[in-house]
TrEMBL record:
PROSITE patterns per the UniProt record, alphabetical: SUI1 (PS50296)
Pfam families reported for this sequence: SUI1
Gene3D superfamilies: SUI1-like domain
InterPro entries listed in its UniProt record: SUI1 (IPR001950), SUI1_dom_sf (IPR036877), SUI1_euk (IPR005874)
Family: Belongs to the SUI1 family.
GO biological process, one term: regulation of translation
Name of the protein in its database record: Protein translation factor SUI1 homolog
Keyword line: Protein biosynthesis, Translation regulation
Protein's UniProt keywords contain Protein biosynthesis: yes
UniProt keyword Protein biosynthesis, yes or no: yes
Known role: Probably involved in translation.
GO molecular function, one term: translation initiation factor activity
Domain SUI1: 26-96
Length: 101
């Protein structure tokens, strides 16, 4: 007897997006430039948010420069100078918890 089991059946079911456990993730990453220089990128925010207003608040809060870049695959991506991963994560969580009140 041979049993054919699809090892990716569970993963494919999750990718379909029909399940109740689907989540939208916000990716906060760092890109190394030259030497000690780095960029922090934020992607995956909802499209109804104003990226320019979020960028303005982030720049004012963390005293760094940044820009919004339009990527053909990823959509709009916020770029900040320096390693701002922890700062951005806490900022987004704090703003999200304040907006639910």
């Amino acid at each position: 007897m041979t049993f054919l089991i699809d090892p990716f059946a569970e993963a494919n079911a999750e990718d379909s997006g029909a399940g109740p456990g689907t989540k939208d993730y916000v990716h906060v990453r760092i890109q190394q430039r030259n030497g000690r220089k780095s960029l922090t990128t934020v992607q995956g925010l909802k499209k109804e948010f104003s990226y320019n207003k979020i960028l303005k608040d982030l720049k004012k809060e963390f005293c760094c420069n940044g820009t919004v870049v339009q990527d053909p695959e990823l959509g709009q991506v916020i770029q900040l100078q320096g390693d701002q991963r922890k700062n951005v994560a806490t900022f987004l969580v704090q703003v999200d918890s304040e907006s639910k009140l």
